[in-house]
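Thread title: Can someone regenerate the structure for this chain?

I was given the following input by a collaborator and told the matching structure tokens would be attached. They weren't. Posting the sequence so someone can regenerate them.
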Amino acid sequence: MRIQFLLFPFAVFLLFIVGGCSSNETTTKASSVAEIVNKPSKVGAYVVKKSGNTVLAVDSQPQDFSATGGVKEYYNAISFSNVKEKLEIGQRVRIEVDGPVMESYPAQANAGNIEILPTYKPDQANLTEAQVVKEAVKIAETKSDWFPAIRHVEYFEAEAIWKVGIMQNENKYDLEIQDKADNKKIR
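Best answer:
Regenerated them for you:
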């Protein structure tokens, strides 16, 4: 990543996180169980790493800076410390920044208010989006030391599989995760 492109996307990300975005999705407080919905959404950021009171949240939607000479697919990422709520890898969340932000990649900040966004579960599926993303993150950790960005999560009913697109650093790949609650086989 080029350092000169970090400031603008980061500022846009902060406006998104602090200001929120308009959506018909219902959010819940982080201390409660996330609502399950049967329609997919790309709102918020995925929790892709956690350690103690720190979580790493990566935007679920990329930004395109190719028109100005930047990268075509850029995912904002912030490592939030001071997280008192119980968050799980795979959840989609909105986290407000509380205080100053260290401009690095990923950026670093204290967490303010946190909301867990509803998780997607098709009517015919056994697993939720959050469970699938958690499994995909586990696999991604074996492929690279770099944190993963979740490019897409799709359920295919006819095959009973989930397809998850991953981007780590500049490498892109797809995973297929079988939709079996008791036996999550990876292809």
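The chain is about 15% helix and 35% strand.
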